[in-house]
Amino acid sequence: MSNKRSFPGPLVILMVVIILAAIATWLLPAGQYNKLSATDNSFVLTTPSGDIVLPLTQKTLDSLGIIIPVQKFIEGDIRKPVSVPGTFTKQKRNGQRFINVLQAPIKGIYDSVDIILFILIIGGFMYVFNETGAMVKGITWLSYTMKGRERWLIIILTTILSFFAASYGMAEEALVFYPILVPLFLAAGYDLLVPLAIIFGGTSLGCIAAFSNPFSTIIASNAAGINWMDGLGSRLILWVITTGLLIWYILRYAAKVKKDPSASLVLKFDGDVKPPYDINVNTVTTAPVLELKTKLLLLIYLVTFLTMIGGVVFLKWWTTEMSALFLGSSILIAIITRMNEKIFIREFIKGAESLLAVAFIIGVARGVTIVLNEGHITDSILFYTASLVQGMQPALFILMLLAFYFFFSLFIQSSSGMAVLTMPIIGALAIIINIPGREIVNSYMYGMCIMSFIAPTGLILPSLALVNVSYKTWIKFITPLLVMLAIICAISLVIGINI
Questions:
Q1: Does 87 reside within a domain?
Q2: Which terminus in the chain has less CB density within 10 A, N or C?
Q3: Residue 429 lies in a domain
Q4: Which helix (H) or strand (E) holds 337?
Q5: What angle do CA 45, 48, 52 make, to 5 degrees?
Q6: Segments forming the whole domain that contains residue 133
Q7: How far is residue 382's CA from residue 403's CA, in Å, rounded to a whole number?
Q8: How far is 467 from 273, CA to CA, in rounded Å?
Q9: What confidence tens digit (pLDDT) does each residue in 415-444 have?
Q10: 208 found inside a domain
Q11: Domain count, the chain
């Protein structure tokens, strides 16, 4: 029997953090800032002596020393109360007890119910769509159609998978493509690293500059108190740059291996290994037919995500409207495919179940913030941390934050868990030291997703098992790309805080 111990899961880690947060409420001095929030027509300043209504103008913000354009409040870019600089006052200690620790994750779920329901409905949508087989048919059709033009297939597939990851957070779903693509690329004269880099690399890369990923961008922005659309343009630009870099990197390696098979890193470090399943694709000589219904389903899939983005940008949608959109799309798919009612309900519930752990992570992580808030030490942490970084160059701060996420992402690969655990405090700290909230969210995404390429707590080990490639070979292959990505992301952050 093996004595090897696995690393604790995200929920266990978060419960430990809640306990540590409760202990901290007995050790750290309690205190709070005055808070400023916006209504439809005015600001409300919350102080120890009561609430004060102030005009919703830039002059009010300037008088309070808050260096934020008033338009950010009017348009809903900032959704949570903002700490007013220079107003920190000490308060009576309110240490959190055992019962508070037990209640914290439950209260966290209450507070996060809108985003939790949104995540669960997306899970239902994905399972209903996957039940149709349209995604696998589409990729299979593309693979056979492009046979003999594998360079273009690398470009198209990497772009598609990166887009799916950036738009809705594709990850585990991509595992189904290995048995389809591995035999195809081996037959074309490439090695096992090429399909691995396309599938795992493409989905991991897309999460770096995710423009509408509900599991990272939306949750993190919500936790930081900003609109997730803030910074959309710069993320789209970075997504194009980084996706282009990955495609170039794969094409360069693939061309070298095809020209000289002995240059294969798989051959060098692992030997003449084969994937852990039968290779029988080459016996099929005709390309699958992409039926009209399949094309329509793929179109609905794409339009659903584009509609979500358009609704948020132009119609000010939030979780209720977005949830309704995905529920409506699920029903439409079921109608078009004449899916049996029982199958539809079964798949939708299975999809929601598949993301139930993510939902609990969001709620439990929110419990950390609740313990800190009810213990009146959240602002104390901000106050003393702000004192430490006061005068620090914003560029140095944002790069240190990127390094912070590099390190902790080795242990926590739950993007939603990391977001709701760290964003409330770091997001508030960013406002105090005048760093745009979008760059705080970006530093979190860049750090987590770059490390997702190699973090053993993520999907890399299952992916390597599906192609029978060693971790050592993957590290040797991917390290130069990660260095380039880290430099590009660091430059992007520094530019972002100066815009």
A1: no
A2: N
A3: no
A4: none
A5: 25
A6: 110-354
A7: 20
A8: 9
A9: 877 886 678 778 777 777 778 889 999 999
A10: yes
A11: 1
